[in-house]
Amino acid sequence: MPERFETKTDQEEVKRQLAFIEAGRQFVVDLKNKLGRTPTACVTTFGCQMNARDSEKITGILADLGYKIVENEDADFVLFNTCTVRDNANQKVYGRLGTLHGYKKHNPYMRIALCGCMMQEETAVDKILNSYSFVDLIFGTHNLYKFPELFVQMMTRDITIVDVWESTTKIVEELPIVRKYPFKSGVNIMFGCNNFCTYCIVPYVRGRERSREPEEIVEEIKGLVADGVKEVMLLGQNVNSYGKNLEREIGFPDLLRMVEEIEGLERIRFMTSHPKDLSDDLIACMKESKKICRHLHLPLQSGSSKILKAMNRHYTKESYLELAMKIRKEIPDMAITTDIIVGFPGETYEDIKDTLDVIRQVEYDNAFTFIYSKRTGTPAAVMENQVAKEDIKVWFDEILSLVQECARKRTAMLDGQIADVLVEGMNEQDATLVTGRMSNNTLVHFPGDESLVGSIVNVKLEECKGFYYLGKRV
Ligand code: SAH
Ligand code: SF4
Ligand code: F3S
Known about the structure:
It is built from 13 helices and 19 strands. The model has no long low-confidence stretch (mean pLDDT 95). It has helices at 11-35, 49-65, 87-106, 122-131, 147-156, 202-206, 214-226, 252-260, 280-288, 305-311, 317-330, 349-362, 389-412; strands at residues 40-45, 68-69, 77-82, 111-116, 137-139, 161-163, 184-188, 190-191, 210-211, 231-235, 267-271, 295-297, 335-342, 366-371, 418-426, 433-438, 443-447, 456-464, 469-473. A six-stranded parallel beta sheet has the order 2-1-3-4-5-6, sandwiched between helices. The protein has a five-stranded mixed β-barrel with strand order 15-16-17-19-18. With 474 residues, the chain is of the alpha/beta class. It is 37% helix and 20% strand. Strand 16 and strand 17 form a beta hairpin. The protein binds S-adenosyl-L-homocysteine, iron/sulfur cluster and FE3-S4 cluster (F3S). The site of FE3-S4 cluster (F3S) has 11 residues, from helix 2 and helix 6.
């Protein structure tokens, strides 16, 4: 019997956690009296957009509890929302924990919590309990919604609270959220992943794939739009398999068409689209849409059919190229970006040549290149023929320079065009400029002030600076 997953929010659980927020406020008030000021809280996010969205949920709860939200980690409550997709993500957390320990020594009221993907790994939790025992609370990805309850436990007990679940069948949305940007927001449309690419830890730390009911997604987006959001990013590890565990027949393009109808919503993005499940209907849907942004992230991982097979990606060099070319032909202004892993076990320079060939043919608008990182528990970790570091370095550099050449060329093609740009903020270097994002994800800086932030304006692209533009409002 396949396990049954809930697809709707568990309202009882929402009520329970709201009651814990109510109870938790008293601890924050007590702390305020002791400190003589409002206690501060800082949430630091590692990893992907999913984690970023989860952090907004935690931040919302902390704000509701009465904390003043700050960016500085020398705060009264600090939470790290961790990632474990590559080893360097883990190392960063250990490094930063050392710094937190220093802060805690001079602030006896400080509390430190860890959550997210890395906490789903027993070895990481053991290491923290043994070597970083000053951490007060550890929880995982499946019980994030239980944070109010765990917070109350943490404030009432002196030991490290550890609550990590293997999996969950529940969906609990609708708790308070503080969004990082008023004008754009991520929206979870599904959780987990069933693909088990052989290098990847995500299915082990995020659990099985579960989609949310389309009505709940649409309601959430309507609420966001009413609150000033112009752009949403629909989030899932493989959005192209959206709907598979729902009772009714519904696919990702059907959901996109429902979201398109939402009045006041101006832009739709999504992440990530697995090439194996990208349908002709999705291409048609993107093509006819007025709101779906001209940007598709289509992770390649490797251009070699041999390596793709060993990675369990379910496509070949040829089928990927056919798909990418079809998209280039149908929607010529669509930017295509990708992820590439260099140094997967068994990879040789012959395989790298295939990857270079695909990059050359697709001419990516941008690409993230990663050095393969061995993740304990994944099939690739025990594969023979792990590749020598020196080879990886040389191959990585060659791939990176080709990727950059393509990205420069694609960016330069926009020169002189007029683009609609969502202004995201003031330019960090030059106070006379604002920074905005085009539909195809390219950044453009142009003269403007704070009042433009959050609006969509037309900008003439005047000067290409490699991967971004300088422009002028028209
Ligand atoms: N679900 C997304 C990927 C999420 S992880 C997808 O399938 O496209 C984001 C990226 O991290 C992946 O695309 C991959 O390129 C990279 N990645 C995942 N595991 C890795 C590992 N063990 N070593 C190096 N890079 C990895
Ligand atoms: Fe990892 Fe593959 Fe799932 Fe993406 S699709 S999260 S790479 S297992
Ligand atoms: Fe990292 Fe977890 Fe995302 S492992 S990439 S934060 S799903």
